[in-house]
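Hello Y.,

Per our agreement to keep a running log of every chain we model this quarter, I'm adding this entry. I've kept the format consistent with earlier entries: sequence first, then predicted structure.
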Amino acid sequence: MEVINQHINKHIAPFVEDPTDGFEEIFSEIINSEKERLKNLLIYVDRILNITTTSNKSKINYLHLHFEKDFDFNDRTIILEFLVLKHFLYSLDNDKTELTNELIQDNISRIKREIKNNQIPANASGKNGGNRIYKKWKNKKDEKRAELDFNNKILNSNKLQVNTLVNTLTRYFTECIDKFKSKQYGIKIEDVTVSKSYVAFNKEKTLDQIDQNEQLVDSLENIILFDSESKSNFINFNLKELLEWNEDGTTFKNLLIITFGKKKVNINNLKNKLNQVDFKFNTEKNELLKPYVITNGEVNNLMKIDNQKQLKTNFYGIESNTFWDSFLLETQIHENLYELISIKMRNIYSLVINEKIKEIVLESVFGGNEGTALISETTQQEFPDELKNELKENLSNTLDYIINSAWKDEIKKLIHENTTIVISNEFLENNLLKKELQKELGLSHSKKLINWEELNSMTPENLLILNYLDPGHYPYYFYPNIIEIPTINSKGIFLNLLFKNKFQWANFNNNNDYYKLLNHQVRSDYFDWIAVKNKVNSLRPKVKEKTSWDIESTYVNNGNKEVIRIKLLSEKKPHNYHTSDLFIYKSNYTNKVVRAIDLLALNPTEIQSLDYITNALPIYDKLADINKQEEELDVIRKKFNIEDGEDAGRLWKVLLKRKSEDLGKESLYSEIQELLGQQNLKMVSFQHFENHWINPESKSLAPIVKKVFLSICNYLNLPKAYIILISRIKNKTKQTTRNNTRKMNLLFKDLFDDGCFDDISKTREILITKKEYYQKNHSLEELGIDENHLLENLVALVELINPEISLQKVDSIESINL
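Predicted structure for the entry above:
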């Protein structure tokens, strides 16, 4: 984000240098002693509103204006007051005539009489600031003069009808009604029939309830939702419904939604807010109607507030090591050993700064002693016996490099008397490791060592962060993290070998995500946004990074995971769900699928977890039945003269074994290595090749890297049907894993949204028209679906799922941090 902030700061001053016509008049009417602090920000807002209103060619001009900063109530009220005044004064300018408004003239005459008759009471005293009676008299006098001034301003107005409706919360409603008591720039919606203004405030009425005043609805042109996007009463003030009302005779022209960020400024909070508002109010899903985000950095710049500094991150040592590369290669081949190269384990390896710690770590990883294990029991059970020694040797040599380098000395240089060090939970919870680390770093007491979770409840000051944690990747997000945490006098230092490439990708992804979220036509026209795109693209690392966030998310414990907690009426206890988990709900008598986080905006009465259905059903068995798995295998067996009944997972190994017998193991290995090298794919070690690829008795089903397996199958002239068949078998064996379930659920989401579950008799008819879409947007091959049987597969999946749909009544839905 720093790259983007620096770019924006260069362009923001010229953008607000010359306020638009009418701004000073609006600003002068704001009654708040703090308004000068926000003047440049209000100029910025004014320009955005003017540009977007004139440039948008939509039937209804829609703008979601989001402030990333969490303003206090007073500052939010100043922004609201500015919006009200802007809409009022603009309407007044367009409503003026040369004639005098007789109703207003009568008001002026009445007010003048009241001022004249408001004589100072006999017992009033203005001495020393005045007594209570004097102050009450003076306040009334000032109010009447303000009312007179306001009525003189609107004397030549014509209709003076409400054309702007501000939907907001009770606290803003109360504040504004009191503020505009004398100068009625805004009135209660309930007072529209007895008071005159261009702006009305609404704190609870729905659009249908407002329609009971037909004259009011017919005159409305502008709808503003101010900090009230979560209020259920206002859900029908969305773009789609307003367009439908216009078809019936209303004249809505503008829909403006104003929202604010949270205290903790980060990309996840921003994404969630933008998605929630877009889902709820931009119901036409028009990509041209993008939100405009005023970043925290822009607000600070415009209000002359010092930006909190981000963590200074340094890296030490070489970026590659033969032993570590070998360790990586072998663990990547065996996906069930991923934990060994996870961020959790890398953080442990990076603190191996003496032989004693190394001994403890190696024993905990490879010793099989569950009481002291640093890895899960599942990973321990997955160790191939033939690989264990090789893995241990490569890791041991890697740790020797860390110990023999000056890494420990680099850490010690950054430790001072008041330094607090952030390390992994595994070291904090293991007394042997913690004591050894304290001894090596010369730490006198344990208070200097904390984890990320403890950091949540303290000021991030004088920190030395040795535990790598970046924001993660959608749908898994972690905060605080080293990219986004604002700190004071703090640093993070990590090993190049273990973390540099991960950090570069995290930094690129963070900047790229912000670039996309901030992208807007105004940015393109006034902020040279193409230059930002080029700067962000220059951050993209050259070396790819293979991180399984599904698995990583199970290891992170930073005390701040956002989840959606749902309590159904039929259940005794609530359950927590990932924000991206999918749920079925009913919308206008049809079943739709949305993310868990979107349920907060929808507030549905009945829902059902899509995961719950798909995990409970034999989906891949159903696919296998359709494509007649055994018949396909028989065709392949006969083609390659392989005996009947040969297991599908052994077949490719049998063919490779034959090749090795013809060419020799070494020659075949070299031939495949060269073939993969031409496609920039890595070859496994010769030992692994010998023990698994040309050994039909090996338990491994297929190489973990899909492109490698595809290349081998092509090399062996195996048909595409075989690759799909193996994918189906792999999926069946790991159907309950989150990564696999998500892909299938996204397929089901489209099936639901396309109406395939509304009337089963019409499913095939719908899918015929959508066939190309499904081929283009879904990994059918990875899901084990043959495109030659696409319609049959999809129809069968719908028929399998449909009887299981049984929505349950909702008791509560809330977002919490764990």
